[in-house]
Amino acid sequence: MPPKRRLNPKTPTTTTTTLTPNNISPRIPPPFHPAPQTLLPFLTTLSPSHIYITSHDTSPIPQKRRIYLIPLLLTLTLTLLLAYRLLHALPTYTSIFLAALGYETRMSLQVKGADAYTKLGIGGEGALRFLGSFCS
User: Fold this and answer.
1) Which DSSP symbol is given to 65?
2) Angle at 15 between CA 32 and CA 52, to 5 degrees
3) Which residues of 5-24 are buried (b: 16+ CB within 10 A; e: fewer)?
4) Model-level pTM?
5) Dihedral, CA of residue 127, residue 128, residue 130 and residue 136, to nearest 10
6) Residue 23: helix, strand or coil by DSSP?
7) Higher per-residue pLDDT: 6 or 59
8) Structural domain spans, the chain
9) More confident site: 3 or 55
10) Predicted confidence (pLDDT) per residue in 13-60, tens digit
């Protein structure tokens, strides 16, 4: 539901403040601290009408590289595993798709003349293949 319109809308008043070392943060909540004076050139480029939360990380660069390397290696490993699985499974699913369209492939089922146990085994094998592919 849209907000109701006021009968007498008030004109917003805008105030501009300039950042000086004395008025960088007049009221900062308890868990936060004012930025160091060395960041004053950075702070003057920010708009005073917005709220900015920044983090000044003082960790050494080699530690940052090690921390970043873990998700990077994990992502690369998962990407390679998925690419291997795709390349390995693509011919199987292509032949299943072509068999469903009626073409003769290695996945085509010859059910004429087969007994019930053979049909059950063929269906069970296909079900387990799809289940294994879906779960992995």
Assistant:
1) H
2) 30
3) eeeeeeeeeeeeeeeeeeeb
4) 0.45
5) 160
6) coil
7) 59
8) 17-49, 61-135
9) 55
10) 444 445 554 555 467 788 877 878 888 898 889 898 888 877 778 889
For 16, the token pair is: 């501009």
List the one residue out of 56, 61, 63 whose CA is nearest residue 38.
Answer: 56
Residue that is written with structure tokens 């996945």 in the block: 107
Residues 56, 35 contacting (CB under 8 angstroms): yes
Specify the amino acid at residue 43: L
Q: What 3-state DSSP class applies to 110?
A: coil
Residue count of the chain, please give it. 136
Q: Judge contact between 48 and 20, C-beta under 8 A.
A: no
DSSP 67-79: HHHHHHHHHHHHH
